[in-house]
Specification:
Elements: H1 17-28, H2 30-70, E1 74-78, E2 86-90, E3 96-104, E4 110-111, E5 115-116, E6 119-120, E7 124-125, E8 144-149, E9 155-160, H3 167-175, E10 192-198, E11 206-212, E12 225-228, E13 247-249, E14 258-260, E15 262-263, E16 273-277, E17 280-284, E18 288-293, E19 296-300, E20 309-315, H4 317-342, H5 352-366, E21 386-388, E22 394-396, H6 398-407, H7 409-416, E23 418-422, E24 427-431, E25 439-448, E26 453-460, E27 463-470, E28 473-475, E29 486-489, E30 493-501, H8 503-515, H9 521-578
Antiparallel strand pairs: 1-20, 2-19, 3-16, 3-20, 4-11, 5-6, 7-11, 8-9, 8-12, 10-11, 12-15, 13-14, 16-17, 18-19, 21-22, 23-30, 24-29, 25-26, 25-30, 26-27, 27-28, 28-29
Length: 579
């Protein structure tokens, strides 16, 4: 660090040397001050642009929520206000009413102790730790093996030793089979859970209960089985004291068949759900029914229902209105940030670049969706009540929005989201991307296998593209007009897809392009400002060091001047004394 010379403030010369030095330094430091001012201006501009970037991202997130979930939100009202027999949720389903009557709910198969005179005759012990369930023999080297089969048909085997020869040991060994072995391709865990219940009464009050993990009859007619396979031969014998009868398996390590053993009692056999929807009788193995009505999930709660429950599905206007209001709010906040920064004296005053970025977002939102047919019910966001004010902000007329939703909610969604309509039920639209074409696309599904491969051709503006996929899903290839397109296929057939990019998707695409890391306009502007500031910092550091050295030199020069004048004054006094 430089040290300054001593200053005596003109004791000999009468000059205010510090003031003179500072004045010289200030004058010579003006270029440095201009660099610092430029850096301050850059930092203010950087902060303003980053605020606008944050506002654009918030707007894009709000638009994503609007397009992906808010238009699909549904309300469900029920004549069974307490939800005693059935409840329902819905998303993206067509509004309508459904009459449900639940005859039986699905149950899970299980094995419980056989009761005689109120006491268990099997699967029960006095002490789950101390009571052994098989004779381990002299030295405790004996073992007992069991096979368990759930209603899903999966069979697993286990072996108990003297180390876990008790009811808790058997329970834990069964539950340990519940996870698939990752080292074995196609491995499946046991579909049965074991519990030990303390009934609190009787001699053998600790009872073992085996329950299938899934409800419904499965592949075994609803029966769960456990067998003692210690002597895995026909005519063998059980070695346990729990009353688990003898059985055999075709393999002790990878069994596929199980014969004999102890199965579910009559009252414990699983049953499938039995219910009616709009007069049609249906059965399902689960009480959560997702495939009876598209977009509606029914939860069956209790059977023996004597009258129907009417469930009415409707558009959730409240959720959608709030989501659209949020879009308006986010856009207006973005405009306000820009206006504040671009006012006279602001960080973005007279900045045409940033102004054009805001204009791009506004244009996308206020424009018309691309790809909509001329017969479309709605053609712009204004038809849904979202309009642009004179000051550039947006406003929402909820009355117009409500009327539009009553008229055609699907058409309303197409104004904001990327949508697709198919003329053939074999093909349905799932998703489109920023690079996906819009308009009419003809297709021909030439190959389809349920759960397997699927392929077909799609024609865009006279050019044919071949698509292939699996599990009923087709996706467009990168670099083609179908890039980003995902379709669901359930059969063969030809037809036409009408693809449209709503204004919400268009605005999100604009924001994505503007804010894309490295390639987006905004990150490039930010990178340029940061580079300028880095360079300015280097120049300021060099300039400040030069001024510091210059100040030391000036202070030394004035100090020497003071010393010289003082010497001359002393010499003059001496000469005057001689006269």
């Amino acid at each position: 660090m430089a040290t300054s010379a001593l200053s005596f403030q003109g004791l000999a010369t009468g000059l205010q040397t510090d003031t003179l030095v500072n004045a010289i330094i200030q004058q010579e430091g003006q270029p440095l001050q201009r660099l610092q001012a430029k850096q301050t201006t850059n930092t203010s501009r950087l902060n303003a642009i980053q605020t606008i970037q944050t506002g654009m991202t918030a707007l894009s997130t709000s638009l994503a929520t609007l397009s992906s979930t808010s238009f699909d939100a549904r309300t469900v009202t029920s004549t069974d206000s307490n939800g005693t027999y059935v409840t329902a949720t819905a998303t993206a389903s067509a509004p309508g009413s459904y009459d449900l009557q639940v005859t039986k709910v699905a149950t899970a198969g299980r094995i419980t102790p056989t009761m005689v005179g109120g006491a268990p005759t099997n699967l029960a012990v006095a002490d789950p730790l101390a009571t052994t369930i098989f004779d381990a023999g002299t030295g405790g080297t004996g073992t007992a093996s069991f096979a368990i089969k759930g209603t899903d048909g999966v069979i697993k085997t286990l072996t108990l030793t003297s180390g876990n020869n008790n009811l808790y040991g058997l329970r834990d060994a069964i539950n340990a089979l519940g996870t698939a072995d990752p080292a074995v391709p196609g491995s499946t865990g046991l579909g049965v859970t074991a519990t030990v219940v303390n009934t609190g009464s009787g001699t053998n009050k600790y009872e073992l209960v085996l329950t299938a993990k899934l409800s419904g009859t499965g592949t075994t007619g609803g029966v769960v089985t456990i067998a003692d396979i210690s002597n895995n031969t026909v005519g063998g014998a059980a070695v346990n004291t729990l009353g688990i009868t003898h059985g055999t398996v075709d393999s002790l390590t990878t069994p596929t068949t199980l014969s004999g053993g102890l199965g579910s009692g009559t009252a414990d056999v699983a049953q499938d759900a039995l219910f009616m929807v709009n007069g049609l009788q249906l059965t399902r193995q689960s009480n959560t029914v997702t495939d009876a009505v598209d977009g509606v999930t029914f939860t069956l709660k209790q059977g023996n229902q004597t009258t129907s429950t009417t469930l009415t599905v409707g558009q959730d206007k409240g959720t959608l209105t709030s989501a659209l209001q949020d879009v308006v709010s986010k856009f207006n906040a973005l405009v306000t940030s820009f206006k504040s920064a671009s006012a006279t004296g602001g960080a973005l005053a007279n900045d045409p670049t940033v102004r054009s970025l805001i204009a791009q977002v506004r244009s996308a939102l206020s424009g018309a969706p691309s790809g909509l047919p001329s017969s479309a019910t709605f053609t712009s966001a204004a038809d849904l009540g979202m309009t642009t004010n004179r000051d550039g902000s947006l406003s929402l007329n909820t009355t117009i929005l409500s009327a539009a939703l009553d008229k055609d909610p699907a058409a309303a969604k197409r104004i904001f989201a990327f949508s697709g309509q198919s003329s053939n039920g074999a093909v349905s639209f799932y998703q489109g991307g920023a690079k996906t074409t819009t308009g009419a696309v003809s297709f021909n599904i030439t190959s389809f296998a349920s759960g397997g491969a699927v392929s077909g051709t799609f024609t865009v503006n006279g050019t044919e593209y071949a698509l292939s996929g699996s599990n009923g899903t087709l996706g467009g290839a990168a670099g083609t007009p179908l890039e980003g397109l995902i379709l669901s296929v359930n059969g063969l057939g030809s037809g036409t897809l009408t693809l449209s990019r709503g204004v919400g998707q268009a605005a999100r695409d604009v924001v994505s392009n503007l804010t894309a890391s490295a390639t987006g306009n905004i990150p490039q502007i930010i990178a340029s400002i940061n580079a300028q500031n880095t360079n300015l910092t280097q120049q300021i550091t060099v300039g400040q060091a030069r001024l510091d050295r210059r100040k030391v030199v000036l202070q030394n020069q004035f100090s020497q001047l003071e010393a010289t004048v003082s010497q001359l004054q002393a010499a003059g006094s001496s000469l005057a004394g001689l006269s």
